[in-house]
Design brief:
By secondary structure, the protein is of the alpha/beta class. The protein has helices spanning 2-16, 37-50, 62-72, 84-87, 141-152, 156-162, 170-178, 189-192, 195-198, 227-237, 240-248, 254-261; strands at residues 26-33, 53-60, 77-79, 95-104, 106-111, 132-135, 165-167, 184-188, 201-205, 214-221. Helix 2 (37-50) links the parallel strand 1 (26-33) and strand 2.
Length: 262
């Protein structure tokens, strides 16, 4: 009987005990230019494994993303495709601390095998018999960067008038090449290094005198609901491991990577 009574007490204690509470996760919302999505997805997955957090990446053209941030008043981090989006918008007081994570650079892309034997010469974009597609400067970072490159060569207005059509961002420029709607375009160099594009595209580097590397800067937003965790993500993206990831996706050359290690 005594054993039976003790058993009842033991069972009653078990019955009253609570199940462990599920871990409450924080959320990070990151606005990211389309071109940088592959390395950011990889870093976000790793960060989720190391911290109790769900990371959401919202992708789009850099200007469209900034407009969305202003309109919604929400989000934790912003990574545009050019530092101009930070410098031009600092007056709004939305963009706070930031770190450098890599470079974008404008390059010329031609059809695989370069069947028209095009050279890395911007005159291509005003040449008869060469179909071109360019990005709209009003919608994405590659559009603004293409405008500057063409302006430096005095070809901006003629090149945009010559284009078969204008599109919005780097991803749609790649699609135009895959669909063979263009013989050449201007796009971010990194895009041409990716495995899923190399079967369709050859990438020609332009001289640095007309195509300067553009720093990629990830910024904390004043709207962040968890700024300390957001800062940890910034540090992670800018760490030596983060640089390894960005290099693998074409956002750092070997020379640039080596300099950062010094």
């Amino acid at each position: 009987m005594r054993l039976f009574a003790l058993s009842l007490v033991f069972l009653s204690v078990i019955g009253c005990s609570k199940s462990p509470e599920p871990e409450v996760k924080s959320n990070l919302l990151i606005y990211c230019g389309i071109t940088m999505i592959p390395p950011m997805q990889e870093l976000a997955r790793e960060f989720e494994l190391a911290h109790p957090v769900n990371v959401t990446l919202t992708q789009g053209g850099s200007q469209d993303l900034y407009d969305s941030i202003k309109l919604s008043g929400e989000g934790d981090l912003y990574l545009p495709g050019s530092p101009q989006y930070r410098s031009d918008n600092l007056k709004d007081g939305i963009l706070l601390d930031y770190k450098f994570v890599g470079y974008n650079r404008v390059a010329m892309m031609v059809q695989k095998g370069n069947p028209k034997n095009l050279t890395a010469d911007l005159e291509v974009f005003v040449s008869p018999g060469v179909n071109t597609v360019l990005a709209n400067p009003q919608t994405g970072s590659i559009g603004k960067a293409s405008q500057k490159v063409l302006e430096m060569s005095g070809l901006y207005e003629k090149a945009y008038a010559h284009a078969v059509y204008l599109t919005t961002d780097s991803r749609r420029l790649v699609q135009a090449m895959k669909n063979k709607e263009a013989d050449a375009t201007l796009n971010w160099y990194a895009v041409g290094t990716w495995d899923n594009n190399q079967d369709f595209i050859d990438t020609l580097l332009l001289p640095e005198s007309i195509s300067q590397p553009r720093a990629l800067e990830i910024s904390l937003l004043k709207y962040s609901s968890n700024p300390e965790l957001a800062k940890k993500f910034i540090e992670y993206a800018a760490s030596p491991h983060g640089r390894d990831v960005f290099k693998r996706y074409g956002f750092l050359t070997q020379e640039e990577y080596d300099k950062l290690k010094q």
